[in-house]
Design brief:
The complex is a heterodimer of chains A (317) and B (345).
Chain A (H helix, E strand, L loop, with lengths): L2 H18 L7 E7 H7 L4 E11 L12 E6 L8 E5 L8 H13 L3 E13 L5 E2 L14 E11 L2 E2 L1 H4 L9 E2 H8 L3 E6 L3 E7 L6 E7 L4 E2 L9 E8 L9 E8 L4 H9 L6 E10 L1 H9 L4 E6 L2 E8 L2
Parallel strand pairs in A: 1-6, 4-7, 9-12, 15-18
Antiparallel strand pairs in A: 1-11, 2-3, 2-5, 3-4, 5-7, 7-8, 10-11, 10-17, 12-14, 12-16, 13-14, 14-15, 16-18
Helix pairs in contact in A: 2-7
Chain B lengths: L3 H31 L2 H14 L2 H8 L2 H4 L14 H17 L3 H5 L7 H11 L2 H11 L3 H7 L10 H40 L3 H10 L1 H15 L11 E2 L10 E2 L10 H10 L3 H5 L5 H22 L3 H15 L22
Antiparallel strand pairs in B: 1-2
Helix pairs in contact in B: 1-10, 1-11, 1-12, 1-16, 2-10, 5-7, 5-10, 7-9, 10-15, 12-13, 12-16
The chains are: A alpha+beta (317), B mainly alpha (345).
């Protein structure tokens, strides 16, 4: 064999194999939502759920971990998916009554009304598809496979915690904007659209809490739904640092949950275009994006960038 | 230290693979539009589960199943297990009601084991009956559910047995589908490779030996790298008016991904049959070598193209970043660490 040809063949083969061999397998999850549900919640901040507590952490996570209280349970009527509810800053004194309520309801299994930000995020995906409004088995641990959360909780039974728990988590190192939004901006998902349902499939996601500088693109709008009095929504650019001219993400929907400190901040400060505030946030799937695409006649299977929005859960000091 | 020519060859190859993967993707979507592979696979799987295609077809006419299909009447590509269980029970019940006089006469004793067996028998063939009885036995719950007075409840424990039966079978259907899809993607990649004669070895050699063409390809690759990432990184929706955060506009509801004229010209210079066939050697030994290198080259191209356009778009961008002596997107710093001085207080 001609040595020149041999070298060329080896070089080309090595190059091609090197390039194709770097694929990785990632865990993915699928949730099948009713289209009517997506339409109902697309522009809402919260869900009001009749919740049965299956398993709850005996004590809230330490602040260094995230300070949340994890509560696994079911809300078959309003959500119909394996889910958890999480109270932010649950170790702080104002949340004590709510945490006691959690444990009482864990014992007696009596349904309890929980209000909080709905959150679809593929952080703990299941191996098999989770189909909305199929029977949900009771959770056997505090963190079952789930892609649906009420997180953060604003009210647990009659204990309103939105005003005291939607604040920065003292002692917790949230992700910076470059890391978190760098990740969110690369996420892709597959949407399979059917007549009355839509299946969302996404690789496992992460980067729960992120702090960033939010630059308003216009005055926040009051949430239109009558159940959401006091909530706001705004489009904003996201920056790593104040004064930076390179946004990490642009035109991201920011959700201010009614009855919480961030929503109160919006009400008090009436921010306008160009105003910047340092906030703590958590991402969720932007169901308005999903609904808008379906409304426009989108059909079949579509693979796209994952549409996301941010629940503002704290105003940084 | 990596030399610039070999980096340019890598850029050229990534670029070619990207274009071929885009062609594959377009062909795949066109074919998928006419066929309904997943829905067909599900229907086939259900036929195997029920062992009775007649019963399966009646099941597909049930409103619960029909409602899951597409608007154009195509069957569903996914059926929730409990929906299947409810629809199956209802189909068996309604078949029984429309069935023999004997079954109807037994209505007074609607949930007796005998009537139950008759109802199941009137719904499907013997294979189905054996499978069904093996799953639910002589369940009183199912008997009641099948009687006209006792509609099925999706919380009945024994209905869950049917759902579990469906689920376990669908796991196997998913496995078949995955294997078929992988085979399909490879087959499509092979077809595109052969039709275009996209031989990785030959393309590499051409790029290596022809600096002028190499430069032109790198320039085209740069232009492509600055375009939108193929399909999957396109957003679903944009919000053009900052004052209306709930008035999104859908993006590219109907897909359009075409190659530019320049890219077509590049492909024409690096692959194709006419020149290659004309220059093939006549001497047997040389011809065998020619064929061998082509087989290796086609195989490499097929495997590469089957990785998909987004993969090659990212790879191309990485190589171009390296060539520009800039930082690769993931090389900035350890992003898992928060930036000092910006922690929550």
């Amino acid at each position: 064999m001609n040595p020149k040809r041999q070298r060329l063949l080896c070089r080309a083969s090595a190059l091609a194999l090197l390039m194709v061999g770097s694929g990785v397998t990632v865990q993915a999850g699928t949730v099948v939502f009713k289209r009517a549900w997506v339409k109902k919640y697309r522009n809402r901040a919260t869900v009001v759920a009749t919740f049965i507590v299956d398993k709850a952490h005996p004590t809230p996570n330490r602040p260094v971990k995230d300070g949340d209280m994890h509560i696994a349970g079911r809300a078959e009527e309003e959500v119909g998916l394996p889910m958890v509810a999480e109270i932010m800053n649950a170790g702080l004194a104002p949340q004590t009554a709510a945490v006691k309520q959690v444990h009482a309801r864990e014992k007696d299994k009596q349904p309890v009304t929980v209000v909080g930000a709905w959150r679809v995020w593929f952080e703990h995906p299941a191996h098999d598809p989770q189909v909305q409004f199929e029977t949900v088995d009771p959770a056997t641990n505090t963190n079952p496979d789930h892609c649906f959360e009420i997180h953060p909780v604003a009210t647990f039974r009659s204990d309103a915690v939105g005003g005291t728990s939607f604040i920065p988590v003292e002692g917790y190192d949230a992700y910076d904007a470059q890391t978190a939004f760098g990740s969110y901006e690369k996420l892709t998902f597959t949407m399979r659209i059917q007549n009355d349902a839509v299946a969302l499939t996404s690789p496992k996601t992460g980067h729960n809490y992120t702090h960033f500088f939010l630059s308003f693109l216009a005055k926040p709008q009051a949430l239109a739904d009558p159940d959401e009095a006091g909530g706001y929504i705004a489009l904003a650019d996201v920056y790593q640092a104040a004064g930076s001219d390179q946004p990490e993400a642009e035109k991201v929907r920011m959700i201010f949950v009614p009855g919480t400190k961030p929503a109160q901040w919006v009400k008090d400060n009436d921010p306008a275009e160009g105003d910047v505030v340092h906030v703590l946030g958590i991402p969720r799937v932007n169901l308005d994006g999903v609904a808008t695409f379906m409304d426009a006649g989108g059909s079949g299977t579509v693979r796209r960038k994952l549409p996301y929005e941010i629940i503002v859960v704290g105003i940084m000091h | 230290m990596i030399g610039m020519p070999i980096l340019d060859v890598a850029i050229g190859l990534s670029f070619i693979y990207l274009l071929l993967a885009l062609i594959c993707s377009t062909v795949n979507e066109t074919i998928a539009g006419f066929t309904q592979r997943r829905a067909d696979m599900l229907k086939d799987g259900l036929g195997r589960l029920l062992q009775d295609t007649g019963l399966r077809d009646r099941l597909y006419q049930h409103p619960l199943i029909r409602g899951l299909g597409a608007k154009d009447g195509k069957g569903p590509s996914y059926i929730p297990a409990q929906t299947f269980a409810l629809a199956l029970m209802d189909t068996i019940r309604s078949t029984g009601e429309a069935g023999s006089q004997e079954t109807r006469r037994a209505a007074a004793d609607a949930d007796s084991p005998d009537t139950f067996r008759k109802r199941v028998a009137s719904a499907g063939n013997q294979d189905f009956q054996r499978a069904f009885h093996a799953v639910v036995g002589e369940s009183a719950e199912i008997r009641k559910a099948l009687s006209p007075e006792g509609p099925a409840s999706d919380t009945a424990p024994d209905l869950k047995k049917i759902a579990a039966w469906f689920d376990s079978h669908m796991d196997r259907v998913s496995g078949w589908y995955k294997r078929k899809t992988q085979a399909w993607v490879l087959g499509l990649a092979l077809a595109v490779t052969l039709v275009t004669n996209a031989d990785t070895v030959r393309i590499s050699r051409t790029l290596w030996e022809n600096p002028t063409l190499r430069s032109a390809v790198v320039e085209s690759a740069r232009a492509r790298a600055q375009m939108e990432r193929p399909e999957e990184m396109v957003p679903l929706v944009v919000y053009p008016n900052p004052e209306k955060p709930t008035a999104g506009e859908p993006v590219r509801v109907h897909k359009d991904q075409t190659l530019t004229d320049q890219e077509r010209a590049v492909l024409g210079q690096l692959m194709g049959w006419s020149i290659d066939l004309g220059s093939r050697p006549r001497e047997p030994g040389a011809f065998a070598w020619w064929l061998l290198t082509h087989l290796v080259g086609w195989f490499l191209t097929m495997i590469a193209v089957s990785q998909g356009a987004p993969f090659w778009f990212d790879t191309l961008n990485r190589f171009i970043n390296v060539r520009n002596a800039g930082r690769a997107p993931d090389e900035r710093r350890d992003k898992t660490q928060p930036v000092a001085g910006t922690q929550p207080s």
